[in-house]
Design a protein that fits this description.
mainly alpha
Length: 260
């Protein structure tokens, strides 16, 4: 086996090398006493906290609550964003009326809406779900819009030549052509949902990974805070991996720069 072949097999492991270096640096910094264990607990303490929370089940309760909120907000965003993207992609003139409004809302950070959302919807689940929807809607909408608009006019002409109805052209040609962009938009939206969940669960939540981090801060338990951060990152990587499989299935060999 040649050296080039060996290096090719090791390529997927390169991404993990930086984590090993960070872990070693973390341990060295703790042993050197650069920061107190209150500010930066050693890795073994964080791991012990993680194991204890797994054994007593509290971590799974927080994961379930966060995933339920992320899934709910994400599905609502997809149910609104995809049809709107198709509608405005098909009717560019109508989109011009809403373009400025959408651009305005898109540039307002969802967390800036928290005070008003609490006033309008209270501190229950609604305000948390709306924050996730606001964060994940626009990646889905804009990707769908782009996919619909970029449909090759020649394909539509072919559909007309075969006497397909307008509905059949939309379903069999235009939407099929936009499937990859929609999948990429969904993947991006899921990432935004995970970023928004922390802010959403800071809104008077009693469970969830955001609450776990907030509670750990209030209790001066930096080890709990780090466990929450690591778990959110791992869940995001797992979902990213699963959506990567979806995107590869629909890409059919096409390169997706925005995704890769």
């Amino acid at each position: 086996m040649g050296m080039e072949s060996k290096l090719k097999k090791l390529k997927p492991l390169k991404g993990y090398l930086i984590f090993i270096i960070l872990l070693i640096s973390w341990k060295v910094a703790c042993n050197a006493g650069i920061w107190s264990s209150y500010l930066l607990p050693p890795p073994e303490k964080v791991f012990a906290t993680f194991v204890r929370m797994v054994e007593n089940g509290t971590l799974f309760i927080h994961i379930y609550e966060s995933m339920r909120r992320v899934a709910t907000g994400f599905v609502i965003s997809a149910m609104i964003g995809i049809p709107l993207g198709i509608l405005f992609g098909m009717h560019a003139g109508a989109y011009e009326y809403f373009k400025v409004l959408f651009n305005f809302i898109r540039n307002v950070p969802p967390l800036a809406m928290v005070p008003m959302l609490i006033l309008w919807f209270g501190i229950g689940e609604q305000s948390k779900i709306i924050i996730i929807v606001l964060a994940s809607f626009f990646p889905i909408f804009t990707s769908t819009l782009k996919g619909i608009r970029n449909c090759d006019p020649k394909l539509i002409e072919v559909g007309k030549a075969f006497e397909l109805s307008r509905f059949q052209i939309i379903r069999k040609i235009i939407i099929q052509n936009a499937i990859l962009d929609i999948a990429v938009g969904l993947k991006l939206a899921l990432g935004y949902s995970f970023r928004a969940i922390i802010g959403a669960e800071l809104v008077a939540a009693s469970a969830g990974l955001g609450y776990l981090i907030s509670d750990g801060k209030e209790m001066s338990r930096s080890d709990v805070v780090i466990v929450g951060i690591i778990v959110i990152g791992l869940l995001g990587v797992l979902c990213d991996f699963l959506f990567g499989i979806l995107v590869r299935c629909v890409s059919k060999g096409k390169t997706v720069e925005a995704y890769e």
